[in-house]
Design goal:
- By secondary structure, the protein is of the alpha+beta class.
- It has helices spanning 7-24, 38-48, 59-73, 98-106, 180-189, 219-240, 248-265, 271-281, 284-287, 301-328; strands at residues 27-32, 52-55, 89-94, 110-112, 124-126, 129-130, 156-159, 162-165, 169-172, 194-196, 199-205, 208-210.
- The protein is flat.
- The strands form four sheets. The chain has a five-stranded antiparallel sheet, sandwiched between helices. A three-stranded antiparallel sheet has the order 6-8-7, with no helix packed on it.
- Residues 114-191 form the Large ribosomal subunit protein uL10-like insertion domain.
- Ribosomal protein P0 is the functional equivalent of E.coli protein L10.
């Protein structure tokens, strides 16, 4: 026979359980549990069993326990959870991959009808097609006389003894309250437009709190963001003449360009500048790269163009090597 616990004993047990979980787990998903039924929550617990634990409770109790735990353990990072404990929320403690756990939670959404007075979480669109209703049900596709603010006016026609919707109609907009006319119509059509489940609001990890959108970032996204930040650092470094690892290569290139410009504009010269001066004195030497060779039938136009590109590429690489030698040898 199970022993019935008092309210005080239940609070003590809850406090001990939450403290133990805070001690054992460093990753927590803060989830919204609006419109989630007990059976649905039980299925979520079963699906996460193994490396994750779902804990629900009153916000005041959770906040109190978190504060006491922070005082006893000295782990002030858990205090970042307190501002997140607002509304109908729960905590999912996990040791698994955060993205995989969130995806597992999302699997347990269930469909729900549009009830009167409910705030629509999404837009509801009635699709065109045969409804299966007899012609006497056409009144459901018009506004109720008691709801003057609601105008349905869904275009219909009678086809083979049943009502058919002609065009798709946006019945309810996201954020609007569901009226009795809309609820009755959707019920008649057998449409359950909404789905509910645990929704991840925030992610806590080792004292840090961040948005769940961060979990969607891939390695390519991180590389792209890093490259973007690196380019900004390099640009600032060059603009301020402040050497950094990101800006130094660009500063060396710019310095080499300045030295080369001076050599071209004056009588001063050095080995790496002589080739540039020679090209400037006789540009026709560039045309020699594309000249066909008559021996053995000659080159084709494509082969000549390819050879010219290869030579230009080799000379460019040689110039870059010469630049570094000219600065430091």
């Amino acid at each position: 026979m199970a022993i019935k616990l008092t309210k005080a004993q239940k609070k003590i047990n809850y406090d001990q359980k939450l403290c133990r979980l805070l001690e054992e787990y460093t990753q927590i998903l803060i989830v919204a549990a609006d419109n989630v039924g007990s059976n649905q929550l039980q299925n979520i617990r079963k699906g996460l069993r193994g490396d994750s634990i779902v804990l629900m409770g009153k916000n005041t109790m959770m906040k109190r326990t978190v504060k006491l735990y922070a005082e006893k353990s000295g782990n002030n990072g858990v205090l970042n959870l307190i501002p997140l404990l607002v509304g109908n929320v729960g905590l999912v403690f996990t040791k698994g991959d955060l993205k995989e756990v969130r995806e597992e939670i999302a699997k347990y959404k269930v469909g729900a009808p549009a009830r009167v007075g409910l705030i629509a979480p999404i837009d509801v669109v009635v699709p065109p097609g045969n409804t299966g209703l007899d012609p006497s049900q056409t009144s459901f596709f018009q506004a109720s006389p008691l709801e003057r603010s609601v105008v349905l006016n869904i275009p219909t026609k009678i086809n083979k003894g049943t009502v058919e919707i002609i065009t798709p109609v946006e019945l309810i907009k996201k954020g609007d309250k569901v009226g009795s006319s809309e609820a009755a119509l959707l019920s008649k059509l057998g449409i359950r437009p909404f789905s509910y489940g645990l929704i991840v609001l925030s992610v806590y990890e080792d004292g840090s709190v961040f948005s769940p959108e961060v979990l969607d970032l891939t390695e390519e996204d991180l590389v792209q963001k890093f490259a973007s930040g690196l380019s900004i650092v390099a640009a600032m470094s060059v603009a301020l003449s402040f050497p950094t690892l990101a800006g130094a290569p660009h500063m060396f290139i710019n310095a080499y360009k300045n030295v080369l410009s001076l050599a071209v504009a004056t009588e001063y010269t050095y080995p790496q500048a002589e080739k540039v001066k020679e090209y400037l004195k006789d540009p026709s030497k560039f045309a020699a790269l594309a000249a066909p060779v008559a021996a053995g039938g000659g080159y084709t136009v494509a082969a000549t163009a390819s050879a010219a590109k290869e030579e230009a590429k080799e000379e460019e690489e040689s110039d870059e090597e010469d630049m570094c030698l000219g600065l430091f040898d």
